[in-house]
Structure formats: C-alpha cells, structure tokens
Amino acid sequence: MTKPRVLISDKMDPNAARIFQESGCDVDVITGKTPEELAAMIGDYDGLAIRSSTKVTKAILDAATNLKVIGRAGIGVDNVDIPAASAKGVVVMNTPFGNSITTAEHAIALMFALARQLPEADLSTQAGKWEKNRFMGVEVTGKTLGLIGAGNIGSIVASRALGLRMKVVAFDPFLTPERALEMGVEKADLDTLLAKADFITLHTPLTNETRNILSRENIAKCKKGVRIINCARGGLVDEAALKDALDSGQVAGAALDVFATEPAKESPLFGTPNFICTPHLGASTNEAQVNVALQVAEQMADYLTTGGVTNALNMPSLSAEEAPKLKPYMALAERLGSLVGQLAHDNLTKISIEVEGAAAQLNMKPITGAVLAGLMKCYSEAVNMVNAPFLARERGLDVREVRHDREGNYHTLIRVTVGTSQGDRSVAGTLFGNAQPRLVEIFGIGIEADLDGDMLYVVNNDAPGFIGRIGTLLGERGTNIGTFHLGRREAGGEAVLLLSVDTPVPAHCLDAIRALPDVRQVRTLKF
Predict the structure, then answer these.
(1) What span, in angstroms and rounded, lies between the C-alpha atoms of 219 and 231?
(2) In this predicted structure, what is the pLDDT of residue 381?
(3) Which regions of 289-349 does DSSP assign to beta strands (E)?
(4) How far is Cα 246 from Cα 242, in angstroms, rounded to an integer?
(5) Which strand (E) or helix (H) includes residue 191?
(6) 83 burial class (0-12, 13-18, 19+ CB within 10 angstroms)?
C-alpha cells in the first residue's frame, strides 16, 4: 500500500515532520514557494500542512488532484478557500485548542497593562521622566469582566479572572445556564453585559452576526470608563467608533491585538492616549507554536491513515475512537443513499435521514454525510463525505435529520426518505451482528438483502412461475445469479426482486426481462 504523502509548506516545529513519518506518511518540508510553484507540485500530495503564509486558493486546489486534507497549524483559516476545498472534497482542519492558553494569557496581560498604564509609564520612565503622579491606575480585584464569547478561550479567561477575584458576566448565545454555573459566571444578554462591565474582552469568531459587535451604538451603552480588550478577531470592534470613544472618555482604555486590516501599518487609533496594541501576538509563544504544529500533524496523519476526523471545518468530526464503531453504519448509510439515488434520483426535493435504536445513540453527522455521499454519486463520480453536502445544497436539496429514541423490529435502523415528484420514497437498513449492512425495506416492501456489487432490481406482479422464468432467462443468457431476495406487499400484489449477479446484465438481457409477463420495472444497480 502506497504511503500518504504530505507537504509542509510553511515553517513549523520540526517534530511535526517526525509525527507524520512515525504515523506512516511520507513527508516533504518545502517552504517559501510562490503560488505558481506550489500549484506545480501540489498534485503529488495527499496532505498539505500550512500556517498563515501559504494561501490555498481555488487555483491551488484545482491543481491538487490527489489532495485529501489541508491542516492549518492555528485557528484562523482566512488563507484557505474553504468553499473551493469543500467542492473539491478536501477536508480542512485547524487546531483551535493548541494556542488557547497563550491567547487567554495575552488578554489578561493586556488587561493588566490597561489597568496600570504600563506601556506609557515605561516610555515615560525610560525617557528620563519620573511622572509618578501621572499614572494613576485601577485595581482589577472586585471589578466586573464582561466576556463576549465563552467558548474555549473565553472560559480560560474567565477562570483566570475569577482567580483575580473579579466578577465575570458572559454573553454567548451557545452558553447554557448549566455551563455558566459550572464556569462560575453570570450569563447575561449583551445589553446587560455592556451596562455592568468595567473591562470587556472579546473571544468570538468573526461572523456576520459578530462583525462590529462593539459598534458605535453598543460602545455608547457601556459603563463610562470601560476598558476594552480584543485578542480574538479584527472586525469585532468598530475601530473608528473606538477612537472617538477614547477621545471622549467614554472608553478609558483599549488594547487590540487584532485589527480589521492586517498587517495594520496605519490606523486612526495609533497615537491615541490610553490605547495599546500588539501585532497579533495572541498565539505567539514557543509553547503554542509547538503545540499547534504537533496537533495538526497528529490530526492529519490520523485522517490519512485511519479516517479519524478531528477539528474539521467542512465535515463532521469523527474521532479515531468513534471511527471503528461508526464505520459499519457509514457503510450502510452510503449504500442506502446510493440505492435510493439510483432508483429515485429524478426531481428530488428533500431527503430525510432517520435513525433509531442503537444508531440513535451515535454521532449522526457522519451517517448523514455518508448517505449524501451515496446519493450524490448519482450526479457526479468525484463525490465524498466532504463535498456531498455542498453538492446537495447546490441542487437545492432540503436535508433533515431525525433521531428516534424508540427501538422497533430491529435493534438498530437507518431510514432514508427522499421527496420526488411522485411522492416520498423510503428505504431502510440495519446491521446484522453489528457489522454487516443489510437492506430490510424498500419503498414500503419488507425485503432482506445485501447491497453489494452488480445487482438487478425488478418490480413485478406476484404471480406463479415468475421466479422460474426470470432465473431461466438469465441462465440461458450466461448471467450467473449470486443471491436472490424477494419481497411483496401482499399475495398477488406488487413484488420486488433483488438479484446479485456475477457480471453486469447486458442491455439485450434487460430488454428480454422487460418483455416477460407481469414485469413492471427493471433497473440495474451498482454498489
């Protein structure tokens, strides 16, 4: 088996290359290449490990004929065209936890620097002045810290602030009351936070909802004399409004590690009294740089060698521990998606994926991804779990997931239902022995069948002698039957026949089957 090949195109800790090698990957470290040079070589690689220097554009991705995964050693992926990667079927990963402590500590450091005016005091003293009375600071003990964003980094900042005997008020739409209690913070809406906070720190991604979350209007709602720290993303704070608020005294001090435009070579904030800035140093510690390099290597190697997906931005995460348990379910899901796609792929408007029994206890996202991958192969051969959801959205397909706690006739079940112009069509399957995918229902008819290799699907009227006629016809034309599965709605009614065959059924043979009495429909299937 050929080893996966990985290119490290940006400078990172040399132990990252060692991890790739020890995990069974071939790795090349080639940095400083132009986009044209990278495009010329990227077709040889299965994985691309980057930091912030390499720009993975659509042109690079178009040249990446074998690429399966891009790993960003760090949080931000502004330098990766994620939609283009998703359309190409390439997993994009980052390392959101490798520099969490470092970034949180930087926010706390800037808070102290603001509270005691440390940069200005340093400059004054080194200039030979002794302006002891000029630099009157404030204590942080007993003050209220307003936390906008209470995820991984925000929760670390909260724990450090609580250790400093501060009160912490947190605004985060995803923060549950239980998690707030566990963190020891007060959960509040944004207006309440703005009114209460003596210090505000931001720890949220930049989205349409969070852009300029500290707008001119919201800064005006703050307690007069508030101090603002942003070590998250540029664009969360309206920088022009912040400048005016500093000048007016509404904001007593501000510290930014990030700017809307970077590198920030100029800004209206530069030179403003009580303003501190650093050049995006949140992740800039030796420990953090080592951590993110090692983590991205471990994640990428895990994906390339075992299929484990961690911290992916464009597909469901699937840990190495989950992968063995989910693998048979994903095989079943992919075949059900393929089956319903081959039989009812015209004019699809919606798809529903339902799980019940043991399947309902599992991570459902990889199951959904596998169903869509099977279904979308009816439209394109270059489909996998990464680009299948993208292709489904592109076709306007409404995708729904339903989890049932109940357990029916089977200990575990996956049902896939698609909406067509002729109504809903549904197939269902289970696992035998928790390992073997098995179809148990097709379009409302109970039938137990393996879905594998070349198959023949026949809908017919349930009539005496039909099985013998079709068996004889196939035998006379040199087609050997592997397995034979039958199902019917009722005696004498609609029946379904699923045959596995050793070789594809030729067109002339299909025409002969269609000419048999009682045949309603004949289709070939491929799994």
Answers:
(1) 17
(2) 67
(3) none
(4) 6
(5) helix 190-196
(6) exposed
Element holding 291 (H helix, E strand): helix 286-306
- Amino acid at site 362: L
> For residues 271 and 292, is the Cβ–Cβ distance under 8 A?
no
| Residues 157-186, mean pLDDT to the nearest whole number | 94
Q: Three-state DSSP class for 251?
A: strand
pLDDT at 188: 96
Active site residue 233: yes
- How far apart are the C-alpha atoms of 345 and 504, rounded to whole Å? 21
> Do 450 and 339 touch, CB atoms closer than 8 A?
no
Residue-level pLDDT at 521? 92
- Assess whether pLDDT exceeds 70 at residue 321: no
The domain segmentation of the chain, as residue ranges, is 5-97+288-306, 100-277, 316-417
Q: What is the pLDDT of residue 376?
A: 86
- Residue in 37, 182, 262, 287 annotated catalytic: 262
Indicate which residue of 72, 106, 203, 233 is catalytic. Answer: 233
Our answer to whether residue 262 is catalytic in this structure is yes
* Ramachandran angles phi, psi of 241, nearest 5°: -65, -35
100-277, superfamily in CATH? NAD(P)-binding Rossmann-like Domain (3.40.50.720)
pTM here is: 0.63
Is the fold of 5-97+288-306 the same as that of 100-277? yes
* Cα–Cα distance measured from residue 207 to residue 186, given in angstroms and rounded to the nearest whole number: 24
Q: Which CATH superfamily is domain 5-97+288-306 in?
A: NAD(P)-binding Rossmann-like Domain (3.40.50.720)
Is residue 51 annotated as part of the catalytic site, yes or no?
A: no
Q: What is the pLDDT of residue 319?
A: 64
Going by CATH, does the domain composed of 316-417 fall within 3.30.1330.90?
yes
37-79 residue pLDDT tens: 999 999 999 999 999 889 999 999 999 999 999 999 988 788 8
> What percent of the chain is modeled with pLDDT above 90?
69
